[in-house]
Write a structure and sequence with these properties.
Structural class: alpha+beta
Helix content: 10-25%
Number of strands: 12
Shape: globular
Bound molecules: biotin
Oligomer: single chain
Number of helices: 4
Length: about 250
Amino acid sequence: MIPKIIASKLHHFHQIDSSNNHAIDKIRQNDIQEGEVFWTDFQTSGKGQKGNVWESEASQNLLLSIYLKPYFIKPDRQFILSQFVSVGIVEWLSSLNIESSIKWPNDILVGDQKLGGILIENILKGNLIEHSVIGIGMNVFQTTFSKLLHEKPVFSPINMQSFVSSPLQIDVLVRELCDVLNHYYYTLMHNPTIIQDKYISYLFRKGIWSNYEYRNQLIEAKIEGIDTQGKLMLSSIYGEKISCDLKEIIFLR
Ligand code: BTN
């Protein structure tokens, strides 16, 4: 029997500034336990990756943050947290018959449309990850999004309900997702290579020649894999090996 860590306590809010910020405030107040989940219907200052705003209409989408204390992961291997969460989301979606992929580092796509994203904020102490706040935003019902907030024309947003005929319920989805993530957190603790292998197998565009903007230059390259620090490894059509972080590369169509 797998111990229940994730969603040992599940807090629901109608409105909050950002579920990640709320968890970080609780950490500062020393008023939080591992596994607590903060789920909200609406965020007034939802945060996305790269300092972007995360847009979500009230009660239309799944918005939550999970608090973990992954002391067993060294800071230089923290990317594995992104991997376990993205793998869990892909497998949870698959249980709903939604076939998705992971656009490195942790966007969840169906085809080339974005279904959701992950924002992980870690607080390190010495050689430990003392606190980790894992924010997840999944589009469930929302159909119109502000164009300015998204990478265009590729990876436009899409919602889960468009792939499922029966009506989805956000509260049910939250509990199911937490159960799946609890399972994969246990796998991460005991058998991390399973997580790494699954992550690679779900990677969007792996081994496919595609166009990228790399350090402000257009290149054609294929994704080869991920290094231990979570950098994306590609090879260009000229045989050049590239290893890059999030700020250095843009996926193009
Ligand atoms: C991305 O840019 O793709 C990451 C989006 C992460 C959004 C979620 S919604 C719940 C949690 N709270 C936040 O403020 N952001 C994350």
